[in-house]
Amino acid sequence: MLTLNDLKKNETGIITEIHLTGLMKCRLIDMGVTTGAAVTMLRAAPLGDPIEFHILGYSLSLRRNEAKKIIIERTTDKNGCN
Predict the structure, then answer these.
(1) Structure pTM?
(2) CATH number of the domain encompassing residue 40
(3) In which domain, by residue range, is 60 found?
(4) Distance from C-alpha of 53 to C-alpha of 15, rounded to nearest angstrom
(5) Residue 1: what pLDDT?
(6) Residue 82 pLDDT greater than 90, yes or no
């Protein structure tokens, strides 16, 4: 099971599940973090937290503990390579 936390720089994944609750889940859904959305990892802070992602045309920073709760499927190119 892969999470947003597992993406490397410039890798993209498709969100399949969100295991957050309450206000944080509502805020992320309002910002487009929904099942089926494509997310690309842009960079991580020097100490690894937070992580910056690209989703729906904008940048979004998440803490590692939040990124670990968003399940993804890594995308592949047309040749079947990651």
Answers:
(1) 0.86
(2) 2.30.30.90
(3) 2-74
(4) 12
(5) 87
(6) no
